């Protein structure tokens, strides 16, 4: 098992080295994005149901649920629950959107490396140019993969949050 982990770590290090420093930035953004998404999933599954039950219980205990004031109170509670539920979603969506841009930054820095090799050694040294081309393509690919995973899971998370809010609204009748 330990040998397998060492081989895995060597593979990751080799991949990160072939992509240059920008690949570390993609990894950091990806890590932050996933930490935030996992936190939101945890909140959605464990914290918000308890909060929604407390809101529903408080609403059911009210004597007045039909007046204009009661409707405004209901709307305020639902709005607060929605705000608590969707907190940090804008940050997640922003991180998803900048992943490809960081990948393109890696493309630019990799191509600059290729041009430096061409300026110093000429176009005859293909091996040295290949390292720069790798530095140009790896971050782009990594940025796109990171963005795709983020788009899929943040969209799914967003849909589950909307369903949760709709269930809360349906559980708070107003006549």
The termini sit apart by: 63 Å
Q: Strand-residue fraction?
A: under 5%
Average pLDDT rating: 92
The main β sheet shows up as: none
Annotation, overall tally of beta strands: 0
The arrangement of helices and strands along the chain is HHHHH
Contiguous helical run count: 5
Please state the oligomeric state of the protein chains shown: single chain
Give the structural class. Answer: mainly alpha
**Segments where pLDDT lies below 50 for 5+ residues?**
none
Question: Measured on Cα atoms, how large is the radius of gyration?
Answer: 25 Å
Helix content: over 70%
Q: What general form does the structure show?
A: elongated
Subcellular location: Cell membrane; Membrane
Membrane topology: Multi-pass membrane protein
Keywords: Cell membrane, Membrane, Protein transport, Transmembrane, Transmembrane helix, Transport
InterPro entries: ExbB/TolQ_transport (IPR050790), MotA_ExbB_proton_chnl (IPR002898)
Structure description:
This protein is mostly helical and 175 residues long. It has a domain at 23-30 and 89-175. Helix content is 89%, strand content 0%. The protein is built from five helices and no strands. The protein has helices at 2-19, 21-61, 68-85, 89-121, 126-170. Helix 2 packs antiparallel against helix 4, helix 2 runs parallel beside helix 5 (126-170) and helix 4 packs antiparallel against helix 5 (126-170). The model has no long low-confidence stretch (mean pLDDT 92).
